[in-house]
Amino acid sequence: MEQDKQISTKFIGPLLLKLVEEGLLGNTQRLELLSLGAVRSLKAEFPDLASSLGALVAKFAGSSSTLRLRGAAPPPADADAGLALLRVYPADDAKEPVLNEARRSNVERFITERMESEALLREGFAPPRTLLLKGAPGTGKTMLAKWMARRLNLPLVVLDLATSISSFLGKTGANLRRSLDYARGAPCVLLLDEFDAIAKRRDDSTEVGELKRIVNVLLKELEDWPFHSVLIAATNHPELLDPAINRRFDVVFDLPLPGFAERQAILESACAQFANGIPTGFLAAIAQCLNGCNGSEIDTIAQSVVRRHLIEKKALPSLFVDAVISRIPELKKEETAVLSRLLKETTELTVREIGRIVGRSSSAVQYQLTKKAARKLARRGKDEH
Ligand SMILES: Nc1ncnc2c1ncn2[C@@H]1O[C@H](COP(=O)(O)OP(=O)(O)OP(=O)(O)O)[C@@H](O)[C@H]1O
Ligand SMILES: [Mg+2]
Questions:
Q1: What pTM was computed for the model?
Q2: Looking at the predicted structure, is the pLDDT value of residue 258 above 90?
Q3: CATH number for the segment(s) 69-254
Q4: Where in the chain is the domain with CATH 3.40.50.300?
């Protein structure tokens, strides 16, 4: 009894005041966060109250009282430029990006935690709401955001910051606010693409005030983002981001360049329909020669090979070899060895001619074609990741 009294004066009193204040101010997200804290604090002493409060938050946090994205008002557009700030896509046909095992399990965990939002909220814990995707160009950041929207069964709303910032000089803060308000109105995945565009303007002194406003809008947004939506920001220059912004994300994924297995999987997926015309192990060898390429480059190579195959009626393997030959200056020694073997297997060229193509002497190529050299290469391919 004595303890109850203590909780009511020390904890419930100030909490009640804070709850009413945030409620009157209309800060739904703060109200929800405060309530989650209360669920956790009350759980031990007042389990029934904690569970009713958790259920209440879970019930309201999963939906939204304002407009629905689909079918409702169109996305906000800038009146002057006539350019839509946001694009709303259904994500139903998004493809799964090829990721390494570690990254894939991170993605799955994020999705599971989102799917279990209600269970987490009932216990007084927040599901992850904000995700930062970092990675070199063409590593599949945009693709992953679309895929996650599909898995979460939410529409994808995209705000390309590179376009909106340069189009709305002087008014970006206000425009950003309007876009974000719209996106938070109903469950969705909001993708802030080219997120570093904000940071890139930092050295332009004429825009310092504007930039500050944008950073402040974003900081507040990241903190107050509603439970029913996911905010994903994608950048290939994470080092340019304000550290304060970087820290605010619930989860950060780094997307690396694809390793050997991923390169092979991207090629296989692009050529899935034509598997019959490709000898076993051939795409693995091509994947070795594409070391250092990003997913986008590999997909582009495969698509162009497939197009040529369909139109020029040439065999896929020789077209792939052509594509690799065009990358010779970038190939390392061991990759030229793989190419030599491919040329030997797929063409009628002599060792000397192969040597001329790959830029090695005939005797070097002769060695590259021995079984011993092949075994060494196969081991390397397996080790690389
Ligand atoms: N990991 C991957 N798996 C399969 N395909 C990929 C992968 N990464 C890239 N691609 C291919 O490249 C295309 C472009 O990738 P995406 O636009 O997602 O890259 P990004 O990381 O967003 O690049 P940027 O930084 O330039 O915006 C994809 O549509 C897809 O066809
Ligand atoms: Mg992108």
A1: 0.81
A2: yes
A3: 3.40.50.300
A4: 69-254
